[in-house]
Design a protein that fits this description.
By secondary structure, the protein is mainly beta. It has one helix spanning 11-14, and strands at residues 7-8, 19-26, 45-52, 63-69, 86-87, 89-91, 94-100, 107-113, 116-118, 125-127.
Length: 140
């Protein structure tokens, strides 16, 4: 099979109208109660809760989480002047499809990943550091 794992995708393809970061929190493994680690990089995973700026987005599609592997908690961009929103762009995004079969009819769902986030327009970058000895590719 030609495609293995996550599928690289541009930020503008996922969020053509932009996005706003609400919060960042560590992802905890449900069973061990320890930080969940990224399988590719070995780094802890962080979830950035995001509001899709698409005016047509409704329900669950309006708020999504983007996972970022990083040694320390990624810092969100500053709030936009005069409003309590934090415009954000994600770097090196990827989409990982999976089958969600918890309770109801199975359906295909998607997990969003990124290697960093920044303010739109190339503001301060918040990248996940590459693990020691890693080549140029890391993260999903």
């Amino acid at each position: 099979m030609a495609i293995q794992g996550a599928i690289p995708v541009e930020f503008g393809t996922v969020f053509p109208h932009g996005a706003f970061a609400l919060s960042v929190e560590a992802i905890t493994d449900f069973e061990t109660k320890r930080p969940q680690m990224d399988k590719d990089t070995g780094l802890p995973l962080w979830a950035v809760e995001v509001i899709d700026a698409d005016p047509e987005a409704r329900g669950k599609a309006k708020s999504v989480k983007v996972k970022i592997p990083a040694e320390v908690c990624p810092t969100m961009p500053d709030e936009a002047a005069g409003v309590p929103f934090r415009p954000v762009e994600f770097e090196h995004m990827a989409v990982r499809p999976y089958v969600d079969d918890n309770g109801r009819r199975p359906r295909v769902a998607y997990s969003l990943r990124a290697r960093g986030m920044r303010a739109p327009g190339g503001g301060a970058r918040q990248k996940a550091p590459a693990p020691a000895g890693a080549g140029g590719k890391g993260g999903e």
